[in-house]
Structure prediction request, 182 residues.
Amino acid sequence: MTLKIGIAGTGWFGKMHAEKLSAMEGVQISAFCGTSSEKAEAAASPYRDARGYESIEQMLDDRKLDAVYVCTPPFAHGEIELALVERGIPFLVEKPIGVDEDTPNRIRNAINEKGLVTSVGYHFRYMDSTSRAKDLLAVRKPLMALGQWMGSMPGVYWWRHMNTSGGQFVEQTTHIVDLMRY
Ligand SMILES: NC(=O)c1ccc[n+]([C@@H]2O[C@H](COP(=O)([O-])OP(=O)(O)OC[C@H]3O[C@@H](n4cnc5c(N)ncnc54)[C@H](O)[C@@H]3O)[C@@H](O)[C@H]2O)c1
Prediction:
C-alpha cells in the first residue's frame, strides 16, 4: 500500500518534508497547494504524478490523500486544518500553530470532536534524548528548567512582522516552551 501525501505550503519546509517523505518506502508525494497554482506546480514538479493547486479545497477535491503536511507561515492557519478535519484527513502541522489563541483552540476542539490523528512539527519531541529525559523525569521532580534559543536573522518576509510570525518568542522560542511542557 502506498500512502499519498499532500503538502500545504510551497516554501522551504514544505519542500524539505516532501523530500524526506519521498525517500521513504510506501510514501508518495501526491500534491502541493500554495498561494498560487504556479508556485504549487513548481513545487510538485520533482515528483512523478504530483500536481499543484492554488487552494486546500481544490487539492482535496481533486486528490484522494491519506495525510497532509501543513507547512504554512504562522498567520496562515485555521482554514487549512479545519478543511482537513471536516474531511477526516490526518495531518502534521508545523509549529507555531498560530499567532493568536483562538485559532489553535478552534482547531484543537474540531480535532477532538472528530477524533482525528494529528501531529506537530515540534521536532525536539521526536529525539532519542527527549525520550531519555522523559524516562529520567518520570521518577524525579524538577523544580525549574532553563532554556534558550538563538537563531539566524529571519530570511522570509512574514518572520519580521509581529502580526504574521507572532514575534521571536512565538516563532522560535516556542520550541523550548513546547519541549518543557512535553
Ligand atoms: N520544525 C522546524 O524545525 C521548522 C523549521 C523551519 C520552518 N518551520 C515552520 O514551518 C512553517 C513554514 O516555514 P517556511 O520556512 O517553509 O516558510 P516559507 O515562507 O519558506 O514558506 C511558506 C509557504 O507557505 C505558503 N502560504 C502562505 N499562506 C498560505 C496559505 N494560506 N495556503 C497555502 N500556502 C500558503 C507561502 O506561499 C510559502 O510558499 C513556519 O511556521 C516555520 O516556523 C519549522
